[in-house]
Design goal:
This protein has helices spanning about 25-35, 50-55, 70-85, 130-135, 140-150, 170-175, 225-230, 235-245; strands at about 5-10, 10-15, 40-45, 65-70, 90-95, 110-115, 155-165, 180-190, 200-205, 210-215, 215-220, 220, 225. By secondary structure, it is of the alpha/beta class. The strands form three sheets. Strands 3, 4, 5, 6, 7, 8, 9, 10 and 11 form a nine-stranded mixed sheet that branches. It has a two-stranded antiparallel ribbon with strand order 1-2. Helix 5 packs parallel to helix 6.
């Protein structure tokens, strides 16, 4: 396994490989989740561990379970944890459809998932098995994500996911079928003129129906990152300070 150390600030290092890397969607989903210091968090499909490691940069949650079905992903996550010298993250090699022995059922405040964007059997499937699992719903369909999250979440606990806009109905239906009510939705656009390329969706276990639409998240203006996009790559404290100026 050939890996590369990528610092993300705050003394945090993520180990990436050809099979398990990260993109802007990880930063967007982490920001959208509004995680809190008191939260017990579980991420499904952690890959290289980018989201749990991002959460460690400032005011980290109480504890994070980083789950992935691929052993290589878990090894990369462990490398990032060790290199960064942090605690508070437990890597879990398991299938989200069955979870793991000792899982905090009904005790989790936030489940977060950056799932495969393509349904199984659609489009071009990469020859590398690790990438095929990461990009296509081989072991991770919307109903799997929502059902497993519902088992972990406490009453009022939240599930945050992202995906391509054409898959939004699948996740809305999956959440409702699992008793997780869609409550907050935001679209991400590369610029104000483009159609959205990503959705960010939050559901809450046991909540009443009411979906709040947030303003679109715009990445670029005149070819330059917008202030809100720049803030994704800062630690939270720096972003809050600049917002107050």
């Amino acid at each position: 396994m050939e890996v590369k150390a990528e610092p993300i600030g705050g003394g945090i290092v993520v180990y990436t490989s050809q099979e398990h890397r990260f993109g802007t969607d990880a930063f967007l989903l982490t920001h959208f989740s509004r995680y809190r210091e008191k939260d017990t968090v579980c991420e499904f499909g952690t890959g290289c561990g980018i989201i749990p490691l991002l959460m460690q940069k400032h005011r980290p949650p109480k504890h994070i379970y980083a789950l992935d079905i691929q052993q290589q992903a878990i090894e990369q996550t462990k490398m990032g944890i060790a290199e960064s010298g942090i605690s508070g993250i437990t890597p879990i090699h398991a299938d989200l459809r069955t979870l793991w022995e000792g899982a905090p059922l009904g005790q989790t405040d936030l489940v977060i998932c950056n799932p495969p964007y393509q349904p199984c059997g659609s489009g071009y499937e990469c020859g590398l098995e690790a990438q095929r699992i990461a990009r296509h719903g081989v072991h991770c369909m919307p109903e799997d994500v929502c059902g497993a999250a519902a088992r972990l979440l406490n009453f009022g606990g939240r599930l945050c996911v992202c995906g391509r806009p054409e898959r939004l109905p699948d996740y809305i239906c999956g959440m409702r079928a699992a008793g997780v009510e869609p409550k907050r939705l935001q679209f991400v656009q590369k610029n104000a003129q483009d159609m959205p390329w990503l959705f960010l969706l939050e559901g809450k276990k046991g909540a009443k129906p009411f979906l709040q639409m947030e303003k679109p998240f715009i990445m670029y203006e005149n070819g330059v990152l917008t202030p809100q996009a720049q803030a994704l790559y800062m630690n939270r404290e720096q972003a809050e300070q600049e917002a107050m100026q």
